[in-house]
Structure formats: C-alpha cells, structure tokens
C-alpha cells in the first residue's frame, strides 16, 4: 500500500512540475551578454560614459541640446554640448566653459571594460574638470540608431533572394531597439519577438510566428532564416545595408527600405 501511495505522489509531482527536458525548451539555448540601451535610445542619447573611484557619468544628447556630467565627488555640469573636435586617429573631444571650471572630454577608440559591472565599451574616456581627472569607459549609440529601420533580405548565405511564384514576398525585419521589439515576415509567416543589440552584437528572440503552410522553397528559406536569427550575430551597417555575421563570415545581407 505504501508503495502505491508513493507512486501516486511521484506522479502528481511530475504533473505539476515540467520535466528538465521541457524546461530547457523554454530557455533560449544561446545566451549572450548584451547591454540593454533601450532607455538611452528612447531618450535620444548619443554618447554615454561612466567610471569609478569616484563614480561619475556623462551623457551627451545633441537633439535635446544637453551635455550632462555628474560625479559622486560633487562635481557636475549641465550645459549645451559644444562642437565635436575629431582627430585623424578616431579620437574625438569636447571642451566647454572657461578656466578654472573648463570641462575637457576625450573619447579614445579602445576596448574598455568597466571593472564593477563587467560591461564592455568601445572607448576609453578621460574627463578633466576643476583640476581633477576622471577616467572610465564610453560608447557611441549612433550606430544603434541606424539599426532602427525596416530591412528586407537581399542575400542569404551567398545566394541572392528575390520574390518567386512560390515565395510571394521576401523576409523582412522591422527593428525598434528603443522598444526591444522586432516584427516582420519570414517570407511566408509573420514574426514578432524581442531584440537586443550593443555596438557589436545583436540577439533576436524568442521569436513567434504565425502557422501558415509554406510552399517548398519558401518553407526551406523560412526554416534557415529563423535558425540563423536564433543565434547571437555580429553586424555591420553601411550605406543602407545591414550585414549579419557569424564567426566573422557574412550569413545574410538586408537592404533598408522606406
């Protein structure tokens, strides 16, 4: 009798709790650490930087005419951003105010990791203000704003993609990083889901699609297209073209459409 009761208890527990295999299906297989910049993009920020010892932060937003520097030590500036001065080696700088309260800011292209958060940035940043030096890391969000558009697939794994009798439309992605959302089509079914990107990588998903039956070549392209999007991708935006890459190799190219 005890054996029967124990068996019933185990069965009830199994019904209430998903199996390990099923639970694994609910979690994306490919995890990648991508910083969420949606808040800054929604605000229209172009440049951000931060540092420690003491803690400080910098935001430049030209659309709102704001340069904001704030340090835990008490130093702070809130002013209109001056004209950017750019050097030939990719270094750019800002200088505002007059001595002894002149603020000098320098962005130097270099991989930089914040020691406290572990977050990776694309610039080493130096700020001089009132005789004090602040050093940290920063990123330009201008490249991320270029992703916010509608993109139509033109090349997939080296083969040109066009509409055919079996495929009335080609895959399309509409990316909105400020909302962390992507919508579009696989060329047969509608898709929607989440998306995150930093200045180097982009990660889609989880994605959901409608369930319309696709003709043969549309079905094959849909399957391959979704499989590529299920993995972290590096990307490049240039001249109205968006290229997704894996292991340094281009896997698809999309064209910006109005």
UniProtKB/TrEMBL annotation:
Keywords: Signal. InterPro entries: DUF306_Meta_HslJ, HslJ-like_sf, Hsp_HslJ-like. The keyword Signal applies. Residues 1-23 form the signal peptide. Transmembrane segments: none annotated. It holds the Pfam family META. This is META domain-containing protein. It comes from Spirosoma pollinicola.
